[in-house]
Design brief:
The structure is a single chain. It contains 1 helix and 8 strands, in the order E-E-E-E-E-E-E-H-E. With 135 residues, it is mainly beta. It has an 8-stranded mixed sheet with strand order 1-2-3-4-5-6-7-8, with no helix packed on it. The longest helix is centred in the C-terminal third of the chain and has 13 residues. It is globular, with a radius of gyration of 14 Å.
């Protein structure tokens, strides 16, 4: 089911997907059991399955990653192929997530302030994890 401008636009054989918000699950072709709520949530997903993205740009770059849960604006935004990750909080794991191991990422206010300061200083490519717990 899709509600919103261009939500689930590219879907061909994917099934049991729910997209709510403009461009949510836009690129999904074959992925299934995904839920995307918010503008641009899971926009790049093509074949990833069983993902849950709640918030503007949550799981923004995810293409084939599966079993991920992102709650908060930009949460897990940099994840492309990682599996079984959970990120809670605005901009939690916004930088690239390269692990394929299950992890839980919680974003705190102190970490957000430090990250904002770092990004404002100069452009860098980093991976940020405030609290990481392997499962």
């Amino acid at each position: 089911m899709a509600t919103g401008w261009n939500a689930l636009y590219s879907n061909t054989s994917g099934f049991s997907n729910t997209a709510t918000g403009a461009w949510a699950l836009y690129g999904n072709m074959d992925g299934f059991n995904n839920t995307a709520t918010g503008w641009f949530a899971l926009i790049s997903n093509t074949t990833g399955s069983s993902n849950a993205a709640n918030g503007t740009s949550a799981l923004l770059s995810n293409t084939t990653g599966s079993g991920n849960t992102a709650i908060g604006s930009g949460a897990l935004g940099g994840n492309t192929t990682g599996i079984n990750n959970t990120a809670l909080g605005n901009a939690a794991a916004l930088a690239t997530v390269t692990t394929i191991q299950p992890s839980v990422i919680l974003r705190t206010l102190a970490t957000m302030a430090a990250t904002t300061l770092l990004w404002a200083t100069r452009p860098v490519s980093i991976s940020i994890r405030a609290v990481t717990t392997s499962i």
